[in-house]
């Protein structure tokens, strides 16, 4: 009788500890509060866009993939988990789980990505863009409903002269970088950049207005918006479909294999997939 009571007490203790609060690490993304900064960054529209992506677009994409039986390795789920978000005017925030606490890190901004990392980024972008193409054919009404809410927020003509200057300065930085440490072929690249410099703003307007072969894009796909962590090694040579990031590695992972997460979906848009690749 005492043994049974002891087990009951242990079970009750386990339940008690299981119900205790557990600390979690989170990231709070908060909009600026000053009117000047809010106007400069169009804060309200961009926080609403990111909330819409996490509340509507990505969950709908996830359901579409699940309904078609895609294995985890072949589906796109490379984004952070959002706990809660709010987008009342002047009070916008997004609370998401801290990926750094899960072992994710930034790529060094001053170093080019390795070939394997570029291939991995392109593979995941292809998975993401493929959902749009598939939905256009297999669930056109649902896809149209999503796209109707994705109005362009940045490259809306006429572009303000200060914004055009900002874009041109970015190209100038690239040209100066090539000139400081010239290598074979850099001269020709610099010449093309000089021509592109004056066309940059209008070229982006044309890209976002083009309705041919469009997808839902991340919109701001650069090195600081991608986190990585080393991929867990597989056990007993079994590929369960959860750890291969879309590659067929024949029951083992290379030492440099990584998992990726794409951050900052504030300028997601419906446009040519070239925007995410440029």
Automatic annotation (TrEMBL):
Q: Which Gene3D superfamilies match?
A: 3.90.1200.10
Signal peptide positions (record): none
| InterPro entries named among the record's database cross-references | CHK_kinase-like, EcKL, Kinase-like_dom_sf
| Xref: SUPFAM superfamilies | Protein kinase-like (PK-like)
Report the residue ranges that make up the CHK kinase-like domain in this protein.
94-278
SMART domains of this UniProt entry?
A: CHK
Q: Pfam families from the xrefs?
A: EcKL
Name the record gives this protein: CHK domain-containing protein
Q: Which organism is it from?
A: Anopheles maculatus
């Amino acid at each position: 009788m005492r043994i049974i009571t002891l087990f009951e007490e242990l079970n009750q203790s386990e339940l008690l500890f299981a119900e205790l609060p557990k600390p979690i690490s989170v990231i709070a993304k908060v909009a600026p509060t000053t009117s000047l900064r809010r106007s400069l960054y169009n804060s309200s529209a961009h926080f609403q866009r990111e909330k819409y992506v996490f509340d509507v677009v990505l969950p709908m994409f996830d359901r579409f993939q699940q309904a078609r039986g895609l294995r985890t390795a072949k589906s796109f789920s490379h984004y952070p988990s959002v706990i809660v978000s709010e987008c009342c005017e002047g009070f916008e925030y997004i609370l998401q789980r801290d990926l750094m606490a899960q072992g994710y890190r930034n790529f060094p901004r001053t170093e080019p990505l390795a070939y394997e990392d570029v291939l991995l980024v392109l593979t995941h972008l292809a998975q993401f863009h493929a959902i749009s193409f598939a939905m256009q054919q297999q669930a056109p009404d649902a896809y149209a409903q999503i796209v109707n809410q994705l109005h362009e927020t940045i490259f809306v003509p006429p572009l303000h002269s200060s914004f055009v200057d900002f874009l041109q300065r970015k190209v100038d930085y690239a040209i100066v970088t090539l000139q400081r440490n010239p290598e074979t072929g850099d001269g020709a690249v610099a010449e093309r950049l000089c021509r592109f410099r004056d066309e940059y703003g209008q070229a982006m307007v044309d890209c976002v207005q083009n309705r041919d072969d469009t997808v839902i894009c991340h919109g701001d796909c650069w090195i600081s918006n991608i986190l990585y962590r080393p991929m867990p090694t597989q056990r007993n040579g079994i590929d369960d479909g959860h750890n291969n990031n879309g590659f067929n590695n024949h029951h083992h992972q290379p030492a440099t294999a990584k998992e990726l997460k794409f951050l900052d979906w504030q300028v997601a848009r419906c446009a040519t997939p070239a925007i995410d690749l440029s």
